[in-house]
Structure formats: C-alpha cells, structure tokens
Amino acid sequence: MSAGTRPAGAGRRIELGLRHNAAQFTLLVVVNALVGGMLGQERTVLPLLGQEEFGITAYTAGLSFILAFGIAKAATNYFAGTWSDRFGRKPVLVAGWLVAVPVPFMLIWAPSWTWIIVANVLLGISQGLTWSTTVVMKIDLVGPARRGLAMGLNEAAGYAAVAGTALATGYVAESYGLRPEPFFLGIAFAALGLGLSTLGVRETRDHARLEATGHVTRADGRHDHLHGDLTDGQVFVQTSFKEPALSSASQAGLVNNLNDGLAWGLFPILFAGAGLSVGRIGILAALYPAVWGVGQLVTGALSDRWGRKWLIASGMCLQALALGLIALAGSFTLWAVAAALLGAGTAMVYPTLLASIGDVAHPAWRARAVGVYRLWRDGGFAVGALLAGLVADALGVAAAVWTVAALTAVSGLVVAVRMYETHHRPDAPTTEEMTNG
User: Fold this and answer.
1) Reduced to 3 states, what is the DSSP secondary structure of residue 112?
2) Considering the domain boundaries, does residue 225 fall inside one?
3) How far apart are CA 193 and CA 305, in angstroms?
4) pLDDT digits over 104-115, tens only?
5) In which region does residue 340 sit, left (phi positive, over 0), alpha (psi from -120 to 50) or beta (all else)?
C-alpha cells in the first residue's frame, strides 16, 4: 500500500487526489451548483419585490434582507467548520439542505417584508452549512497539489449557477410577474440538493486525517508554529488577526463580499432607476456572477502555477476600478462592461483566497480555519448592506458605490503589503536557497 492510501472499510481505500476521487468530486461540484442556484433565485427579483410589492423605499430598509442573510451565513460558517470536524462533513451538508427546503415557499407566500427577512436568515444558515462543507470536502479529497484548481471548480459551479438562475428568474419575472413563478426553481434545487447529498455524497473526514499523517512542513519553516491541533480560540485568533496570510485573506474576503452585497442589493435598483426593463436588469445581474463563475475555472488553476498573493491583490484592485466605472456609467453597454470586469476581478480573488487558507492551515484544524475565514468573508454581506444602505440614503446610490470602490482598493493594498506567498511547492526552492544560489 502506498503512503498516500489507507483502508476505509467496506472495501474502499482512502486516496488523495482529483483523479482518484473524480466521481465524488464531480458530485460535490453538482451539489454546490444547486447551492448557488438557491442564492441566485433572489439576485434579480428580491430587490424589485421589496420596492414594488412591499413599498420599501429607504435603501437601508430594502437591504435588510441581505443584512439578515449575511449575519446568519457568517455565524453559521464558523460553526460549520467546527461541526464538520466533530460530527463529519456529510451530516452538516444534509442539515444545510434541510434548512433550505422552506425558503422558496416562504418567498412565494410572504405576506410581509418580515417573512422575507426570516426566509433569508434560513437561507444564510443553509448556505453557511452547505457551501462551507462542499469547500472543505473538496479540499479533503484533492490534497495539497491541486487545491487552487479544486476551489476554482467549486466556486465556478456555485456562481455560474447564481448567474444562470438570476438570468432565468429575470426572464420569468418579466413574463409572469415577481411571484410565484421565479421561485419554482428554488423548490427544484432544494429537492435535488437534499436528495443527492443524502443518497450520493460520501464522508471525506478520513481524507483529511490521511493528509495529516503525511503532512510535509515547509522547508523555510514558515508554518512551524502552526503544526498539530489548535484550540478553537487559537484557530480564530490566527485566522482573524495574527497569522499574516490567514488574516490578510480574511479581511480581503470580507471586503470582497462587501462589494457583492452592494451589487446584490443596489445594482438592480440603480439599473431600474435608469429605465432598464426587468429582463435587461436580469442580464446585468447575471453577467457579473457568470464571468466570476466561469473565470474561476482558469484563475484557480493559475494560482497553483503562479501563486496566490498577486492574483488576490490585483483582483481586488480590478474590482475597485470596475465599481468606479459602474458609478460613472449610465448606459446598459457600459454597465455590462463594468459588470464583466467586476466578475473578472472577483474570479481572480475568490478561489485563490480559499486555496491560501488551505495552504497555511494544518489538516487537523483546516475545516475550522475555513469556517473562521468564511465567517469574516460572509460577514461582508452584512457590512456591505448596512454601509451601502446608510450611504445611499444620505448621499445617493453613486456615493455608496464610490465608497465601496475605495474600500476595495485599500483591501488590495493590504494584501500586497502584509500577505506572503502561501503556495509553496515541495520541489520549489525557498527564498533563502535562491538567495544563496
């Protein structure tokens, strides 16, 4: 038996690598696409629903559903990592889908905006459990060599589904109205996701344990102080504040989703105010996550070859430029160009941040580190909704976009200054070796 395999009972061997685990990996990609679809059902329709059916006129109040979603998802991300270490990955995944089942029905039948907010609390909990767990499971399966590619495939599936569903619901809403037909897709996604996760997905915790037994330290000693198991508190401190790469990734993730919260909540209202039809708003709402999703098929693999740091820093700066263009533009064509640039910048950042967390965190506490990172990252939805709403109410939508653009540029500079390159190939020379010839 090779060093990279171990018996797993029932005649199965545990092996690391994308090729060895292709069937399970592919199934998890499909499951995460369904997770993304649950989020995509809201991207075009819900901001317009708040204005047209519930009479929500204040931006801060209109963005309350994103605030509720972000807080719920961020908190659940943290517990998802801890629970997946304690109880296993699959039970957490299935639990997430069970929480998702009532969401589309609540959106269809909601008699008040309060129901919409409660539905988004449930959606946030579900997304935190399901998306976090599919991330951890894919990292478990592929091992260290193809981590960037794995995250690119995972996030591409999720956000391509967000885009496709946003586009589809826009066209459905234009033809049939804002309710109930656009949310029928969510009912189908929840049923499929629960069924596949329950019947098809297998537990991957043993893959992480196998990787931990053969974990190779960096030759430059960069992570020597992080070896072995850490307490939950130590993982939180290292990931949030202390370890330079982990903390840089956490702040960049928060700001990235801060501008996504802005795009989700205010862009449809901005475009509608310019006289665009619901169908055209759906195209713009879909274009950004579509480029983001498909682009990750390339950027995740590139980060395995080129490294993580500069893809992240340059991607944040590209997002800032795209947001500035959105604030300046006033036509469908320019907004489409800006949305594509915003998606490209996000594609450079999103899988690469997750891969960098996997690079640094030891397999024994990696699931918890992913949970802490995603706590900060998805907390950006809440921060973005609150900040964008307050600024938009006080100074207008364009001022809110400019504010978020400036924060995104600063975040990219933080990565450039504070973060080190995390992807260290075992066969690559260290900085000291290159310096000494």
Assistant:
1) coil
2) no
3) 33
4) 999 999 999 999
5) alpha
**Which helix (H) or strand (E) element contains residue 2?**
none
CB atoms within 10 A of CB 273: 9
Instruction: Report the C-alpha gap between 303 and 353 in whole angstroms.
Output: 10
Domain that holds residue 331: 16-210+232-424
Rounded Cα gap, residues 388 and 87, in angstroms: 38
Residue 126's domain is classified under what CATH number? 1.20.1250.20
Q: What is the mean pLDDT of the chain?
A: 84
Residues 6+ away with beta carbon under 8 Å from 297: 152, 153, 156
Beta bridge partners of 6: 14
Strand partners, 7: 13
Q: Are 218 and 423 in contact (CB under 8 A)?
A: no
The answer to the question of residue 220 being in a domain is no
Of the candidates 73, 340, 39, the one whose C-alpha atom is nearest the C-alpha of residue 169 is: 39
By C-alpha distance, which of 430, 431, 426, 434 is closest to 143? 426
In degrees and rounded to multiples of 5, residue 7 shows phi and psi of -60, 145
Q: For residue 226, tell me if it sits in a domain.
A: no
Task: List, for residues 359-387, the tens digit of each pLDDT value.
Answer: 888 877 887 888 899 889 888 888 888 88
Burial letters for 372-407: b for 16+ Cβ neighbours within 10 Å, e otherwise? bbbbbbbbbbbbbbbbbbebbbeeebeebbbbbbeb
> Is there a domain that residue 401 lies in?
yes
Answer for the pair 358, 145: CB distance below 8 angstroms, yes or no: no
Name the CA radius of gyration of the chain, rounded.
21
What's the number of domains the chain is made of? 1
- 215: phi > 0 → left, psi -120 to 50 → alpha, else beta; which? beta
